[in-house]
Amino acid sequence: MNPDSPEPDRPAPTGDVPSSPPASVYPAAEQSPGAWPPVYGPAAPPRRPARIAAILVGTVLVLAVLGAPLGLLWAALAPATPVLKTPEGAIYADTQPEQPIAADGWFSLLGFAFGVLAALVLWFVLRQRRGPVGLTAAVLGALAAAPVAWQVGRRVGVATFDRLLATAPAGRAFTKPADLRAGGVDWVLGVLPVPHGNLLLPAFGAALMYTLLAGWSRWPSLRPEPEPDPAAFSWASAGTPAPPAAPEPPAPGAAGPPRD
């Protein structure tokens, strides 16, 4: 006992006082040498250019094939335009037909919805490749599906239209299949197709939806991460006994301890 202090003498600490908790507090799999605090979450998948390229090509091809049913749906919903056969060819039956505008509108709505759904599906299917790879796959796939949908949809009923255009007498009324007036494909140098107009809406919908999903993600890496164990943040090791609980106050009316 020190006469100047009621507390018992304690040996002076030796060595440096550690500024971080013992390594046993955190699981070894979640620690990295020299890092404090440890970073939780799954490790990013290894970068393999060949595998990433295969994922991109496969996703683009699948979405491009899905453009065919999108075109059939567009052809079923878009109205055909009434025309009249004349000696010079077919002319619109109405001076200002609304059917071509409706065909463009239906394609725009269906294409945008297709891009949004494609981004949603790829967000969950390619969850380990979320980020630039997933976004690129969604945008390129939707961009490839749009011309496929256009060409498939516009060819539904075109054989009947061409036959009537060639054989029908003058004054005969029939319909022209739906087609686009606000979109198309330009060929750069004769080899590179570049869509424009409402053919870009599927890619725009995919990019917008994927960006929103990334912005609302609760994980910084965009990939699902395990929740950290709250017990792992305790500064006491598992072998340290818990401090004794404070004695409960005496009940009212209870006899106090005997006094000398």
Main sheet characteristics: 3 strands, antiparallel
Element order, helices and strands? HEEHHHEEEH
SS field, number of helical segments? 5
Q: What is the number of beta strands? A: 5
Average pLDDT over all residues:
78
The largest beta-sheet arranges its strands as 2-1-3
Low-confidence stretches: 21-35, 37-41
Question: What level of helicity do the residues show?
Answer: 40-55%
Shape: elongated
Judged by helices, strands and strand pairing, the structural class is mainly alpha
CA-atom Rg in angstroms: 36 Å
Beta percentage is 5-15%
Alpha-carbon distance between the termini?
Answer: 26 Å
List descriptors.
260 residues; mainly alpha; 3-stranded antiparallel sheet; two-stranded antiparallel ribbon; 5 helices; 5 strands
Describe this structure in words.
With 260 residues, the protein is mainly alpha-helical. It has a domain at 49-216. It contains 5 helices and 5 strands; from the N terminus they run H-E-E-H-H-H-E-E-E-H. The chain has helices spanning 49-77, 99-125, 132-154, 158-167, 201-216, and strands at residues 81-86, 89-92, 173-176, 183-188, 192-197. A hairpin with a 3-residue loop joins strand 4 (183-188) and strand 5 (192-197). 20% of the residues are buried.
Q: What's this entry about, in short?
A:
This protein is mainly alpha-helical and 260 residues long. 40% of the residues lie in helices and 10% in strands.
